[in-house]
Design goal:
Helix content is 33%, strand content 27%. By secondary structure, it is an alpha+beta fold.
Length: 195
């Protein structure tokens, strides 16, 4: 319940039980309805009060100022304005995200690996030319390995056996006729062990 003194008598401007709240990023408006009726003006309707809380980053203490009493033909209300820093929207963080920091660490580590590896091979082992690349055998095959992996994922028909006839699949070969007859006619182990 919000009250105000009008002469000697307190006047109810609005009740907490009939409150409306609206807001945006840097302001919040509390509208209190259900106050005492006007005695002579505003068609003797109920009083209502709007309390507008606005962003003021310099204001640590809450101070409420009466702006005006508006008497419009359609509506009458009192408007109060209060500025405080707690109403302000949070400022966006100005910094790098976790993913950016991770990528920077990976890039710096990669560059340090190549730089220190280059100097080690050059100064300690006396490498010249292309021999100065650390683990060059691995790095020369990385492109082919990536292409094979991409081919296996994107072109499964060539790598999974989908485009071949069933008899030419590498994982299974039918038993030849001669070997099958030999297995039936002779001892099983001796046919498998013979050249």
């Amino acid at each position: 319940m919000v009250m105000m003194r009008s002469g000697d008598k307190p006047v109810v401007l609005g009740n907490n039980s009939r409150a409306l709240v609206s807001s945006q990023d840097n302001w919040l408006m509390l509208t209190l309805l259900g106050g005492d009726n006007y005695t002579s003006s505003c068609n003797k309707e109920e009083r209502k009060a709007h309390i507008m809380f606005v962003c003021d980053r310099m204001q640590a203490e809450l101070e409420i100022h009466t702006v005006e009493m508006l008497n419009i033909s359609t509506s009458c209300y009192l408007l109060f304005v209060a500025g405080h820093k707690s109403i302000c929207a949070p400022t966006p963080a100005s910094g790098l995200s976790g993913g950016s920091i991770f990528l920077i660490i990976v890039l710096v580590t990669f560059c340090a690996y190549f730089t220190f590896g280059f100097f080690y091979l050059r100064l300690v082992r006396g490498a010249k030319g292309i021999e100065q690349i650390p683990n060059r055998e691995f790095w020369f095959t990385v492109g082919n390995k990536l292409a094979d992996g991409c081919g296996a994922v994107c072109r499964c028909d060539q790598y999974c056996g989908a485009g071949r006839p069933p008899s030419s699949y590498d994982g299974y070969s039918p038993i030849e006729e001669r070997l099958a007859q030999d297995l039936q006619n002779t001892d099983r182990d001796s046919a498998l062990l013979s050249p």
